[in-house]
Every structure is written in C-alpha cells, then in structure tokens.
From TrEMBL:
<feature type="binding site">
    <location>
        <position position="161"/>
    </location>
    <ligand>
        <name>AMP</name>
    </ligand>
</feature>
<feature type="binding site">
    <location>
        <begin position="85"/>
        <end position="88"/>
    </location>
    <ligand>
        <name>AMP</name>
    </ligand>
</feature>
<dbReference type="InterPro" id="IPR007862">
    <property type="entry name" value="Adenylate_kinase_lid-dom"/>
</dbReference>
<comment type="function">
    <text>Catalyzes the reversible transfer of the terminal phosphate group between ATP and AMP. Plays an important role in cellular energy homeostasis and in adenine nucleotide metabolism.</text>
</comment>
<keyword id="KW-0547">Nucleotide-binding</keyword>
<feature type="domain" description="Adenylate kinase active site lid">
    <location>
        <begin position="127"/>
        <end position="163"/>
    </location>
</feature>
<dbReference type="InterPro" id="IPR000850">
    <property type="entry name" value="Adenylat/UMP-CMP_kin"/>
</dbReference>
<dbReference type="InterPro" id="IPR033690">
    <property type="entry name" value="Adenylat_kinase_CS"/>
</dbReference>
<dbReference type="GO" id="GO:0005524">
    <property type="term" value="F:ATP binding"/>
</dbReference>
<keyword id="KW-0067">ATP-binding</keyword>
<protein>
    <recommendedName>
        <fullName>Adenylate kinase</fullName>
        <ecNumber>2.7.4.3</ecNumber>
    </recommendedName>
</protein>
<comment type="subunit">
    <text>Monomer.</text>
</comment>
<keyword id="KW-0963">Cytoplasm</keyword>
<dbReference type="InterPro" id="IPR006259">
    <property type="entry name" value="Adenyl_kin_sub"/>
</dbReference>
<dbReference type="Pfam" id="PF00406">
    <property type="entry name" value="ADK"/>
</dbReference>
<feature type="binding site">
    <location>
        <position position="92"/>
    </location>
    <ligand>
        <name>AMP</name>
    </ligand>
</feature>
<feature type="region of interest" description="NMP">
    <location>
        <begin position="30"/>
        <end position="59"/>
    </location>
</feature>
Amino acid sequence: MRIVLVGPPGAGKGTQAAFLAKNLSIPHISTGDLFRANISQGTELGLKAKSYMDAGELVPDEVTIGMAKDRMEHPDAVNGFLLDGFPRNVSQAEALDVMLRAGNMKLDAVLDLEVPEDEVVKRIAGRRLCRNNDKHVFHVTYTPPKTEGVCDVCGGELYQRGDDSEETVRRRLEVYHTQTEPIIDYYKAQGLVVTISALGKVDEVTGRAMAALRGEQAA
C-alpha cells in the first residue's frame, strides 16, 4: 500500500506511522528522517537544506520533494510506503502525484488523524522532559511523575520545552490549518481520504486505522 498520513501536531502521527508501517510491512518515510539522513550523509540536497536551515529560512519545496523522490525509489519502497510529514502543502501533493504517475503508481489512501484542537494543546503543552535525558518523557495529566517536577527514572529536573508552550502550539496549529489542512480537500476530491479519531490508547487508534485502511482497500 501507498499511504499518506496527515493530522495536526500532537495527533500521534509518528507513533501511529511506526506501528502501521510494521503491520503493513512497508517503510515509514518521515520528513524529519529524510532531512537528518541527507544532512548527515552530506548529499547535495542535504547541503542545500542545511544552508536554508542555518540561515533560519524555510527549506524550499523542491528540495523536500527531491529528498522524498529519492527515498521512494529505494528497493524497500517498491511495494509501498507510508509518508509522514510529506506532502505538507498542496504544491507538494501535486508534485507527489506527478512522481507517482511517472512510475505508473498511485496512492491507496490518505489517512487523516482527527483530534480536537483543545486536546492537541493539552497533549503537547502538558509534556515534560528530563534535563538529564530527553527520552524520559512525562505528562502532567496522562503520565505524571510520582513527585512533581522530578524524573521517576533518574531524579533529574523536569521541564517544558519552549516550543511546547500553549502559545507556540496554537501558532503551530494555525500553520497546519493554513498550509497542510488544504491537502485533505485536495485528496478528498480524489476519493482517497479516510478519517479516523486519534483519541484513545495507541493500540486502539492503530486498530481503528488498520480497519479503515482495509475498508479503503476493499473499496
């Protein structure tokens, strides 16, 4: 299957992408991983991306599209892939369509993870990380530490990242609504969108997603 995963920040796209890709035996292709890999390997596209990022500028669509195209041509993606973070806007979605048509391929589904805006803010703004190890993650509501402000694992101080503040989260949501959400309508016109609720436990959402994708295949 060839799937695009969309949803607002805080919808759990990265977590669901990993589970879905494993269940479907297809590679999970995320924009973040593409950027990191190309920059660390010093590819031409990676160097271009780094020059924009170092200057505090947005990486142009053509650079992101080039990275995605290169990754989708790897042998492990011949029978399908799950795209996470790409396409990010309508122009990238149009470019993806051109790429797929050139390879006599098509998307099977666009999985839209739906989460109420207030829940997104609650999920992200409530997150706390350990200063000693940022892999020790807690949440003031869902997974609170035994002692407020103290990491259960190593006793380090817990803190809120600057980009996890409510103000920043709401700005990120505005960007999502303006730039990325329009691709849902773009793909709805092609009859590809399957919308599911991303509320609940991780395995519940994964089960919901798999059932929705099976329905998409049957259709």
